[in-house]
DNA sequence: CTGTTAGCGCATTCAC
DNA sequence: GTGAATGCGCTAACAG
């Protein structure tokens, strides 16, 4: 075998002394082949180091067994975990993953979607970026697609996300139960459903407790570190700064921590901090970080499963579950505490770790 | 346009009133087509929402414009940054990325490699896991392949990695210059080239300074958090515990921090800690973490570029650069300090941030 | 059970 | 410049 010689089914058939169709049959176990011939074919395949050409097979069958995954930023620690879940589920089902990073850019996203379409992937998983509209072209083509995490309001079906309203609610409840009344939130970007939803949950919790929401306590300028720094500084300069801050994203969190550090503000003595998405390092911060966690791996798995259903459904068939919504889980650590000067925190002791079911 | 209707070049040709070959020519700008006909073809393509079938094209041309990327663990924060570099470089060159996660499992890696081969990707980027041998099958097939980060000793060409010997040396030098003499290292896994190389650099620096290396100061049991916890506990239980610890991996670091925390050992007053690979959160730890950083994005870009060369070289042609080695950069923060009881640290003040060139 | 045959959609000779 | 014909490697429908 000298190197990368191309061998086709013809070669295998010839060497095994059978027809091409027989080779195809043993590869796909699509028809019954006598075990004697089967052995001969397998021996020939091994001898020639033959591997079926998936490209040719795809052209013939019209399926590639590849899905496209378009995410806004793989260096955002949230997505690798989702991708892992997708990849695992896909692999178990015989699919490969074409990974595309849109860099939070709508034009790039459009290009990727178009490229994936041309490559004839069987379906697409999309976490869309702000101002994205590329997907409706795909939807109009009846292209199998599922939205993950970042879900457009217009999606009639095929969405998988954490219940972010619940997540925002759970985080805010925790702070309220600790006795906080002046609670701020670094929202992130209102054009992105997770952020928008978390704010909604926050509002809901505040209203339920008849707590005022000061507009100057809300910041929705973006999801980068820089936004966190600026928003943090602004909050600390307020005449009546908040006693607790909820941050809807880890990058914003880093910015906030930096701003807090500049002013030598102590967590949690002077201000409590709670963040979304639980990363492994959160528990190694000091103080360790209270967060509202998502099951990122499950998010990935479920989104593949839903896509799989869509890819394989019969024409016009309805989905058993059009929208998958996963529970969020509050993880209490030491970055949240009763507000300064607050009396005993007995009533504030939370009863359960998970508020998802409330 | 009712949905996902299949349109081929035939349809476009018919609508434009030209032949199939003409359509192909305008798509590939492979031949001169009169501008009048060109416009007609383009209009027809737009009207039919036609997108060339890359599968068919690949079958015909023998190239897929897809590369495979096999990494051991996408949830290891190191790899997403590498993948980002790869993806950017690939996209700029018109390639897509098929992402495979081997879960640090040699058998899984083998399956992925085999699958990628069948899918006729044009080349593969591989960060191999321990005990991996699957790649030599690919190499024997003369399959274009480049090793990234984790490089087998046997690779005759096509490797891209950080100079980890230098990295280990730089980290150890920093500790030595601070005045440390009892220095430990959580090595990770000796079957993985980055870890092995960092240990070598560590040894080199110690020997240069005539400092002894106590075998009980070295731990090479694995790269998981658990290994870090156990190794950390062992070190602290020693009669003469180290005054500085070098950790070759972020997961080991988390484990070590946990062990230190259990014993209420203060960083850097009682023990200095230095880690490899600089992640965004490292500077937000308290104390902020001194690390030896790699240029992960560049690692990705360069590995794609090298693969690109290999994929496109003429038969037997030699590579301009067979092995790419990138410099590491020491980033000094507050987790490293002179050892307890050490006199003024004037001599210990490091002169430059980057020791890469030393 | 096995072999023959006709395309899948496209790029690419070759005649015109 | 343009168009008709051939085949990339495979599957599936059919004939033996």
Your description of this structure?
- Chain A is of the alpha/beta class.
- Chain A folds into three domains: 9-52, no CATH class; 62-162 and 296-327, Rossmann fold; 164-294 and 331-355, Response regulator (Rossmann fold, 3-Layer(aba) Sandwich), CATH 3.40.50.2300.
- The first copy, chain A, has helices spanning 9-16, 20-28, 35-48, 54-61, 78-92, 106-118, 134-140, 164-177, 193-208, 225-237, 250-262, 296-312; strands at residues 66-71, 96-101, 123-126, 145-148, 159-162, 183-186, 218-219, 244-247, 272-276, 290-293, 323-326, 329-331.
- In chain A, the strands form two sheets. In chain A, strands 2-1-3-4-5-11 form a six-stranded parallel β-sheet. In chain A, strands 7-6-8-9-10-12 form a six-stranded mixed β-sheet, sandwiched between helices.
- The longest helix of chain A has 17 residues, at 296-312.
- The relative contact order of chain A is 0.12.
- Chains A and B meet through helix 4, helix 5, strand 2, helix 6 and helix 11 of A and helix 4, helix 5, strand 2, helix 6 and helix 11 of B.
- Strand 2 (96-101) of chain A pairs antiparallel with strand 2 (96-101) of chain B.
- The structure holds a DNA duplex (16 and 16 nucleotides).
What's the SSE blueprint?
2 copies of one chain form a homodimer.
Chain A: H1 9-16, H2 20-28, H3 35-48, H4 54-61, E1 66-71, H5 78-92, E2 96-101, H6 106-118, E3 123-126, H7 134-140, E4 145-148, E5 159-162, H8 164-177, E6 183-186, H9 193-208, E7 218-219, H10 225-237, E8 244-247, H11 250-262, E9 272-276, E10 290-293, H12 296-312, E11 323-326, E12 329-331
Parallel strand pairs in A: 1-2, 1-3, 3-4, 4-5, 5-11, 6-7, 6-8, 8-9, 9-10
Antiparallel strand pairs in A: 10-12
Helix pairs in contact in A: 1-2, 1-3, 5-12, 8-9, 10-11
Chain A binds a DNA duplex (16 and 16 nucleotides) through residues 6, 8-10, 18-22, 24-25, 27-28, 30-34, 37, 52-53, 55-62.
């Amino acid at each position: 075998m000298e190197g990368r010689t191309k061998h086709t089914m013809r070669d295998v058939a010839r060497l095994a002394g059978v027809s091409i169709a027989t080779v195809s049959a043993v590869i796909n176990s699509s028809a019954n082949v006598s075990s004697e011939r089967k052995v001969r074919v397998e021996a020939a395949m091994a001898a020639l180091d033959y591997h079926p050409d998936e490209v040719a097979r795809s052209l013939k069958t019209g399926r590639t067994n590849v899905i496209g995954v378009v995410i806004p930023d793989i260096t955002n620690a949230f997505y690798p975990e989702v991708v892992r879940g997708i990849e695992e589920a896909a692999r178990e089902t015989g699919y490969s993953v074409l990974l595309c990073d849109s860099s939070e850019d709508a034009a790039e996203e459009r290009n990727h979607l178009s490229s994936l379409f041309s490559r004839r992937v069987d379906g697409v998983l999309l976490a869309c970026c702000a101002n994205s509209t590329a997907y409706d072209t795909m939807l109009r083509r009846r292209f199998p697609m599922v939205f993950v995490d970042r879900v457009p309001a217009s999606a009639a079906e095929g969405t998988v996300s954490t219940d972010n309203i619940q997540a925002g609610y759970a985080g805010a409840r925790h702070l309220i139960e600790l006795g906080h009344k002046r609670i701020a939130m670094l929202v992130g970007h209102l054009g992105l459903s997770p952020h928008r939803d978390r704010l909604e949950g926050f509002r809901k919790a505040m209203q339920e407790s008849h707590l005022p929401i000061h507009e100057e306590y809300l910041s929705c300028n973006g999801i980068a570190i820089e936004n966190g720094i600026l928003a943090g500084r602004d909050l600390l300069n307020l005449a009546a700064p908040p006693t607790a801050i909820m941050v809807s994203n880890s990058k914003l969190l880093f910015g906030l921590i930096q701003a807090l550090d500049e002013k030598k503000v102590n967590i949690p003595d002077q201000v409590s901090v709670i963040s979304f998405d639980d990363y492994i390092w959160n528990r190694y911060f000091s103080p360790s970080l209270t967060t509202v966690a998502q099951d990122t791996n499950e998010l990935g798995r479920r989104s593949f499963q839903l896509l799989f259903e869509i890819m394989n459904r019969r024409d016009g068939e309805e989905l058993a579950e059009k929208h998958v919504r996963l529970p969020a889980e509050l993880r209490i650590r030491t970055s949240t505490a009763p507000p300064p000067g607050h009396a005993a925190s007995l009533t504030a002791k939370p009863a359960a770790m998970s508020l998802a079911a409330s």
